[in-house]
Amino acid sequence: MTHIDNLFATRQARVADFVFDHDVARVFPDMIKRSVPGYPTIVESIGLIAGQHAQAGTRIYDLGCSLGAATQSMRRHVSADACRITAVDNAAAMVERCREYMIAQDSMVEELCPVEVIEADITALELRPCSVVVLNFTLQFISPEQRLELLQRIRQALLPGGVLILSEKLRFADEATQHSLEQLHYAFKRANGYSDLEIAQKRSAIENVMIPDTLETHMQRLTDAGFGHAHAWFQCLNFCSMIAYP
């Protein structure tokens, strides 16, 4: 059953900072589908990319997994023998519901790639050697001063031939571009049924929690972290997904 996101439909005297609590976990599938242009394409393609790069007997990480959409996609597409996915999130409510989704997927499809869902802080998580790492709209919620170190640890853990898939909301240095794509994003949300009040209150809730970077910043940081090559493979409005290779 899909629960409709109406968390910001009522005017609030004070809009609190956004948190991934039980209320958000309950409506998250509807929220992200109506808020992130191109999200279904990104999620399905993550599975395809992982299927190309997953190596037999290796670990795959979905860091900041939320409800596990990317993990479910990878489980459908990864055919390499003896792979194991570790899905990680620091929000207990998201982890609880993610585990339920994985159990439901197991009941519908046989012989899926095994998965463990754990509650942990990815900035402190010890990463084991791996062939695929996914950060699907996760890095933007990490403190900016911790982002390079996290990417460095991911680079060190990735095996030769491995891949990092990094999806992020973008900001733009050029003010005209920023304004144009921002307004298109609001139009996208309105077209999906969000009111101006909901859009404004969600923006207030998330502006101090989610801090986006420019594409140029992302590319330079990936280089600084030791990745040999990186490129964008998808962009829709101000949302982008990138691939980075060791």
TrEMBL record:
Keywords: Methyltransferase, S-adenosyl-L-methionine, Transferase. Its EC number is 2.1.3.-. It catalyses: prephenate + S-adenosyl-L-methionine = carboxy-S-adenosyl-L-methionine + 3-phenylpyruvate + H2O. S-adenosyl-L-methionine binds at Y39, G64, C65, S66, D89, N90, D121, I122, N136, R203. It is an enzyme of class 2 (transferase). One of its GO terms (biological process) is tRNA wobble uridine modification. Residues 60-162 form the Methyltransferase domain. Gene3D superfamilies: Vaccinia Virus protein VP39. The keyword S-adenosyl-L-methionine applies. GO terms for molecular function: carboxyl- or carbamoyltransferase activity; methyltransferase activity; S-adenosyl-L-methionine binding. It comes from the Bacteria. InterPro entries: CmoA, Methyltransf_25, SAM-dependent_MTases_sf. Transmembrane segments: none annotated. Homodimer. Catalyzes the conversion of S-adenosyl-L-methionine (SAM) to carboxy-S-adenosyl-L-methionine (Cx-SAM). Belongs to the class I-like SAM-binding methyltransferase superfamily. Cx-SAM synthase family. This is Carboxy-S-adenosyl-L-methionine synthase.
